[in-house]
C-alpha cells in the first residue's frame, strides 16, 4: 500500500470518528431555553406563577397590611402545595410576613391559579375569582371534599342569633384540651392571645387543615366554612395540606419563634376566626361555654355570671364552670351587632340557610365584621 493510499484512509476514518469524540450527537441538540415546569427562575412557568401570585396577593392584602404593620407590605411568601399533571392549575397559600418583634400575626390568604398559555389567572381568598376557580379546579388540585369546604369558606357568614345572655355559637371550643385552663392574654383587632397552659395546641373544631407558610401558621377550614387560624406553633403532625382533623386533634406546641419567621417571640398562641375576606371580630362569639367580648384593647370572657379578664385563667369548658377564685361575677355584656359587609371587599357576606348542610356535623355560625389581627 502506498503512502498516499494510507493518508487517504486516515482522513476518511478521522471524519467518521472525531464528531462522536468531541460530543456531537446524531439527534437534535436540546434547546437551552427549555426549563422544567417547576423551575422557579423568572421566565419559567413556576416563576411566572410566583410573580402572578405576588401581584394578586399584594393587591388584595396590601391595604390591610399597611394598617396592621404600620408600613408598606413586604413581598409575599408564596407556597404552592398542589398542581395538576399538566401544570395548568395550582393551589396554595401566600403570606405577607409581619415585621420582626412586632407581635403581629401575618396577613395570609389561600389562592387558586389557572394558566392559559403563558398567562396565569389568580383567585385570592376573598375575591369572586377565588370562588370561581375553586368550582372549576380539577380534582387533582381540589378533591371534592375540599372543594365543598372552600366553597362555603368563600361564601362568607352572617352571625347566628345570640341565645339569651349567651353569645352567638360558633360550634367551636377553645384551642386546647377540655378541662384545662390557659391564661387569657387578651384580644386585639380580632386575634386572641393565650399562654401558660400545657403548651399543646388542639383543633377548636373539625375541618381541613392548611399550612399558610413553611412554619408556625396554620388554618383549619371547618365544614360550615368558618376558619380558625393558629399562630406560633411548632411540631406539627404529618398531616397533608387539606387533610381532615377532628375537634380536639393535636396540632402542635406553642413555640418561641414568630410565625413564618425565625425571629424570637414570647411563647404564646395566637388564635383567630376568619372567613375568606379577613379575620372576624371576636366580640359576642361563643367558644364552648364562654362568650368573648372585646372593646378597643380590652377583652374578657363571660359564662353564666362568671367573668375572666385579661390575665385570668380561662378553662376550656362546654358547660358553665364551677365558681373559682380565678373568676368574678359580672353581668354578661351584650355583643354589638355585626355589619354584613367587609371593609376589604365591600361585598356583603352571603346569608347561610338555617340548619346544617346534609352530611355535615352540627356547627354554628360566625360574625361577619372582619378586622385585621394583631397580637400585642
List key phrases describing it.
376 residues, alpha+beta, Glucose Permease (Domain IIA), 2 domains, 8-stranded antiparallel sheet, 6-stranded mixed sheet, 4 helices, 21 strands, 17% helix, globular, disordered C terminus
Description:
This protein is of the alpha+beta class and 376 residues long. The chain folds into 2 domains: 45-155, no CATH class; 168-329, Glucose Permease (Domain IIA) (Distorted Sandwich). Helices cover 17% and strands 28% of the residues. The chain is built from 4 helices and 21 strands. Strands 13-9-10-11-15-7-6-20 form an 8-stranded antiparallel β-sheet. A hairpin with a 2-residue loop joins strand 6 and strand 7 (191-195). Helix 3 runs antiparallel to helix 4 (144-155). The longest helix has 25 residues, at 45-69. It is globular, with a radius of gyration of 27 Å. The N and C termini lie far apart (97 Å). 48% of the residues are buried.
Structure summary:
This protein is α+β, with helices and mostly antiparallel strands and 376 residues long. The chain is built from 4 helices and 21 strands.
Helix-strand layout with pairing:
Elements: H1 3-21, H2 45-69, E1 77-83, E2 89-96, E3 107-116, E4 119-124, H3 128-136, H4 144-155, E5 168-169, E6 181-188, E7 191-195, E8 200-202, E9 207-211, E10 217-222, E11 227-231, E12 233-234, E13 244-245, E14 250-254, E15 269-274, E16 285-287, E17 290-295, E18 298-303, E19 306-309, E20 313-315, E21 328-329
Parallel strand pairs: 5-16
Antiparallel strand pairs: 1-2, 2-3, 3-4, 6-7, 6-20, 7-15, 8-14, 9-10, 9-13, 10-11, 11-15, 12-14, 16-17, 17-18, 18-19, 19-21
Amino acid at each position: 500500500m502506498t503512502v498516499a493510499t494510507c493518508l487517504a484512509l486516515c482522513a476518511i476514518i478521522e471524519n467518521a470518528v472525531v464528531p462522536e469524540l468531541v460530543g456531537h450527537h446524531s439527534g437534535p441538540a436540546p434547546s437551552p431555553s427549555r426549563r422544567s415546569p417547576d423551575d422557579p427562575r423568572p421566565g419559567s412557568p413556576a416563576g411566572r406563577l410566583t410573580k402572578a401570585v405576588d401581584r394578586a396577593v399584594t393587591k388584595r392584602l396590601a391595604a390591610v397590611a399597611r394598617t396592621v404593620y404600620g408600613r408598606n407590605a413586604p413581598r409575599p411568601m408564596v407556597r404552592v402545595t398542589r398542581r395538576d399533571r399538566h401544570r395548568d392549575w395550582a393551589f396554595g397559600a401566600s403570606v405577607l410576613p409581619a415585621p420582626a418583634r412586632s407581635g403581629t400575626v401575618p396577613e395570609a390568604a389561600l389562592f387558586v391559579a389557572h394558566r392559559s398559555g403563558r398567562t396565569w389567572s389568580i383567585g385570592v381568598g376573598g375575591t369572586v375569582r377565588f370562588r370561581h376557580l375553586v368550582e372549576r379546579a380539577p380534582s387533582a388540585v381540589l378533591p371534592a371534599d375540599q372543594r365543598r369546604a372552600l366553597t362555603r369558606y368563600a361564601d362568607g357568614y352572617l352571625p347566628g342569633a345570640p341565645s339569651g345572655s349567651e353569645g352567638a355559637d360558633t360550634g367551636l371550643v377553645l384551642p386546647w384540651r377540655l378541662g384545662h385552663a390557659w391564661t387569657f392574654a387578651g384580644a386585639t383587632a380580632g386575634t386572641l392571645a393565650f399562654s401558660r397552659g400545657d403548651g399543646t395546641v388542639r383543633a377548636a373544631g373539625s375541618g381541613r387543615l392548611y399550612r399558610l407558610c413553611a412554619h408556625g401558621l396554620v388554618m383549619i377550614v371547618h365544614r360550615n366554612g368558618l376558619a380558625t387560624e393558629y399562630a406560633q406553633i411548632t411540631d406539627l403532625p404529618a398531616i397533608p395540606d387539606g387533610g381532615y382533623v377532628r375537634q380536639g386533634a393535636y396540632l402542635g406546641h406553642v413555640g418561641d419563634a414568630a410565625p413564618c419567621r425565625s425571629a424570637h417571640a414570647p411563647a404564646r398562641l395566637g388564635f383567630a376566626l376568619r372567613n375568606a375576606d379577613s379575620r372576624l371580630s371576636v366580640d359576642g362569639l361563643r367558644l364552648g361555654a364562654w362568650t368573648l367580648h372585646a372593646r378597643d384593647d380590652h377583652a374578657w370572657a363571660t359564662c353564666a355570671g362568671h367573668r375572666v379578664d385579661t390575665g385570668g385563667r380561662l378553662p376550656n369548658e362546654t358547660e358553665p364552670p364551677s365558681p373559682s377564685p380565678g373568676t368574678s361575677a359580672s353581668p354578661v355584656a351584650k355583643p354589638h351587632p355585626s355589619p354584613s359587609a367587609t371593609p376589604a371587599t365591600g361585598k356583603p357576606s352571603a346569608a347561610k340557610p338555617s340548619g346544617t348542610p346534609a352530611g355535615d356535623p352540627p356547627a354554628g355560625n360566625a360574625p361577619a365584621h372582619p378586622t385585621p389581627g394583631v397580637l400585642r
